[in-house]
Batch of 2 targets.
Target 1
Amino acid sequence: MECLFCEKKFRCENPKSKEEIDKSLKEIDDDLKRLKEVADPEARIKLQKMGEELKERNRRFGNAHPSVLLAIGKKTITPRGHSTCDGAGPKKR
């Protein structure tokens, strides 16, 4: 896989490589082991579930360094054309 940011000066890690996925799964497992320190059983169960879901997403989609991840969003427009991004609505003058 060619790097999108280095003008092909070097090859970057493949986010779906077994090594990258295994490395991320180990890091998640190490973090999940620390859940025994969480006193609230409901919170511990919720965090355990989130960790397992994250591991499944890593297996399915791969794991990339944050600097090469891309986020795609959608800006909501109200019927009158005012952005709802800040939740403040139209400005009064």
Target 2
Amino acid sequence: MHDKRLKELAQVTDLAYQAQLQKSKPLLRQQAEIQSALAEIRQAEANRAIELKMADQLDPATRARADVYWSKWLERQKKMLIQKQTEIALKLEEERQAAAYAFGRKSVAEELLKIKRPGERYR
């Protein structure tokens, strides 16, 4: 009777642990998307600098003004992405701690199952 309950406990704690691990996957995907967006912004900055240097038909004042507006827009985009990245990192840390807790419960249930001997009673 107790063996059956311990096996069920081990199964339930394993399922809870697996479910907890799955919660991190969307966050990791979002984190990768943000990294990609930041890389695109950095590349766009580099490309824009080259374009402005090669734009002979624009006078220097126009180039400077256009570059300032565009740079401000890029900075806002980067700040927004970095803020999201920070929020995701915080959520990932919370999920990591929850997964560690679930892993501990799973490990204890497995150890209880291993040390349980027939005829022995737990208090």
